[in-house]
Please model this.
Amino acid sequence: MNALINWLDDRTGLKKLMHEALYENIPGGARWRYVWGSTLVFTFSIQVITGLFLWTAYSPSTTTAWESVYYIQNHMQAGWLVRGLHHFSAQAMTVLLALHLMQVVIDGAYKAPREINFWLGLVLMQIVLGLGLTGYLLPWDQKGYYATQVSTEIMGATPFIGPQSQVLAQGGPQYGHHTLTRFFAMHAGILPGTLIAFLVLHIAVFRRHGITVPDPDRAPAATFWPDQVLKDGIACLAVLGTVLTLTIWHHGAELSAPADPSVGYDAARPEWYFLFLFQFLRFEWVEHVTKGPAFGAIYVPGALMAILAAMPIIGRWKAGHAFNLFFLFVMMVGIIGLTGLALRNDAADPDVKAAVAQAHADAERIKVLAARPTGIPLEGAVSLLRADPKTQGPRLFARNCSPCHRYDGLDGTGREVVKMVNKERVPENATATDLGKFGKPEWIKAVLTDFKGTFKALENVKDKEGNVAESSKHFLEGEMASWSASHAQHWRVKENEPALDDLVAFLASQSQLRGAPGISDESPKRGRQIFETGKLPVGAFEANCLDCHSLQPIGEDKLLGEVGAGPTLTGYGGERWLREFLKNPGHEKFYGSNNAMPAFGDRLLENELDLLVRWMVGDYD
Model:
């Protein structure tokens, strides 16, 4: 080994380089407060190494970016681990940056003759934040897509050069494929190269002036090796342990559903280290009084950075150093406070919680769709979600049906239907029945036993005088409502309870929905007899079902009853019945002249109607 080292030293000057690197003088001895710079270099090294591995499998285009990250996360050997280390080390670097900045200011390491090095450190901080911002978009998922789009719009608010800067960053006037490729070039090439160059300068200038020691007489002077190296090594190991723990706990980094510009994303938020700025921009006086995002997103952060940059000049005086400490303390408290406020507000916002839940559901759903034997088509994973009833059905219901109906009390996507009254959220009354259980046995039983209660929401339809509309009265006081009320006594007879279940089973069997009773089961057979004859174990219907309704039993050619006042019940609640009903609910075999529901045959495209119906009947894997 000595011969090898001597040979290398003779040709490269290795020993002198090692001595320069390891035997730097540290007045006052090694201390834990000096570890932050080394941990920053360590976390950046993790990101470089993991980033190179990610680069080998990443494909930067709008139809392959999410797909390649999905492959890395779910199929590449240890890909989730590599991606998680890359993601969480980036977040750790932001925390370490803040700690390093605080240590530098507290120790006065920004004062002359170290001003240049302090300014180089501020430049490095901006580059690190730029890396976080550009990397956020690269998975091309909903979360990154919409959060980064907000960032580019803020860039466009910059005075004088804003629109040109936004076009340059986006790669054109629109946000799309060239935005992704440019952000990838910045994240994987331009910014890391720039960071390395400034890091070399930063370390070189630091070595020229040495460590700033507030109390050099606290202990005998020492050298960087071995004591400070040991402390730095332990600190780096602690950072690695933390990052690795977070990676394993979360099984890598989050990957939401693929970006889809055709749908919104109410849960879009920047990463936690930009939440303070997001919250500041949400203040009413910032959002409305200042007329645009420039004040909160450009001027205020710019002023804060200007004060940071002026610290070496302000700190020439003792009072100036005290001001710098006070300013840094207030700024850190403000950042932490605004971040906490943003998290608290989101936790208390039902719309945000619903949007987050939907985003998580979409993220889990795309995993199921992408894992099918057919895999991901050439047009990208987003096409799977666009053709998925479970994903698109709730959205279609929310847009087209929730103005009148509810789905288990909500709008179909998990949100409450509300209106704003004096800046307060007030629930919007439904004007039609809740369809969460439509077509299922519990729905049919409710219609039979409590028709008026099932359709009680119709009472919220008012005329110009504020009274219940005549159309609602007619429906709520019609023949079926009267029949249900007059026969309630039959269902209170204990011997008739099984008969009610049989009748419900027969009607449910005609839908042929997933989970419905089979038409050849004994219970539906008994229910058919009740439907046709109206006879019960105790008593009988005053008017049996065929007096008003007609029905063609599944598998038979004959029609029971005649088309009359009530809807035809052939396939009631099933996919075909529901499709025809939504297209034209005023048809004579449905509600006829009593109908107040709009026809959706002209309002929805055929594929949209198909997605809505299949979601409502549960026809998806």
Observations:
- The mean pLDDT is 90.
- Strands lie at 25-26, 222-223, 418-421, 424-427.
- The chain has three domains: 25-262, 274-348, 441-572.
